[in-house]
Amino acid sequence: MTKPTSIDAVQQMLGDQGYVCDRALGTVVFLALSLGRPLFLEGEAGVGKTEIAKALAAALGRRLIRLQCYEGLDASSAVYEWNFPAQMIAIRTAEAAGTADRAALQAELFSQDFLIERPLLDAMRPDENGAPVLLIDELDRTDEPFEAYLLEALSDFQVTIPELGTIKAPEPPIVILTSNRTREVHDALKRRCLYHWVDYPDFAREMDILTARAPEAAENLSREVVAFVQQLRTEDLFKKPGVAETIDWAKCLLALDVLTLSPEVIADTLGAVLKYQDDIAKLQGSEAKRLLDQARASLEPT
């Protein structure tokens, strides 16, 4: 599929993949695709930042290459490394055969045959289906030195391997970076990207999302689930539930053949929507009923 030619087309394209996109997000995605700029998405965990990369790759028919970030991530894990065991076997084989010409062997050992490509280098390679979607997920988990390394890759869409030289992408990949904002990402990296804050959806959009991702849920149950989760987000919680938790919870309730929420059902299934014991403890006893009553009140016509 060719890249969309309008914001409405972006929203329709993502919607066809089950991703409900508001106009603000659709606009920045359209601009990122049109201008060939990386897209930096920040927001709370579970609001759909990673899913947009998956939806884009599926909609455009491109490969999705995911670099999952973590503390201590470096170039050898993100870009490339040499296949050391295979190199050692080649050295031993050459020595046993008595053909260990030093210069020739060194050239062979540091050739493409012994190169292990990691996500960043893989994303620079040509692809018959078009440039892949490169997802650099949870960038805030990495260290600042890795951010500095990304500057070359995102500025010129190229990586440098000392033994082989500079490898430049024939067509820039579609780059999506995400951050849960556990720390601030450096301005130098942000300046190379288009930026968007992905917030919790309002009731209407979360209903649309739940309908798209869990269409088998009855409307009444979906409305109660969304209203209750929306109410939960107003509470003083260590980790407020994201859209992912809303979808998970609805699917859990369906598996239990629940038709309507009750304080007892909520207490039994809170582990699907809240992930910290301190938060779960706050909803014991009458608190679950209070929030459910408030959620139902918000659904009543005014």
Description of the molecule:
The protein is built from 15 helices and 9 strands. Helix 10 crosses helix 12 (243-255). It has helices spanning 7-15, 23-35, 49-60, 75-78, 84-97, 102-109, 119-124, 144-156, 187-190, 203-213, 219-232, 243-255, 263-269, 277-282, 286-299, and strands at residues 39-42, 64-68, 80-82, 115-117, 133-137, 158-161, 165-168, 174-179, 194-197. It is 49% helix and 13% strand. The radius of gyration is 24 Å and the shape is elongated. The strands form 3 sheets. Strands 2-5-8-1-9 form a 5-stranded parallel beta sheet. Strands 3-4 form a two-stranded antiparallel ribbon. Strands 6-7 form a two-stranded antiparallel sheet. It is α/β, with parallel strands linked by helices and 302 residues long. The longest helix has 14 residues, at 84-97.
Number of helices: 15
Given the C-alpha coordinates, what overall shape results? elongated
Rg calculated over all Cα atoms: 24 Å
- Give a quick account of the main beta sheet: strands, pairing sense, barrel closure: 5 strands, parallel
Share of β-strand residues: 5-15%
Number of distinct beta strands: 9
Helix content: 40-55%
> Which blocks of ≥5 consecutive residues have pLDDT under 50?
none
Secondary structure class reads alpha/beta
What characteristics describe this protein?
about 15% strand; about 50% helix; alpha/beta; elongated; two-stranded antiparallel ribbon; five-stranded parallel β-sheet; about 300 residues
Task: Provide a concise account of the structure shown.
This protein has 15 helices and nine strands. The strands form three sheets. It has a five-stranded parallel sheet.
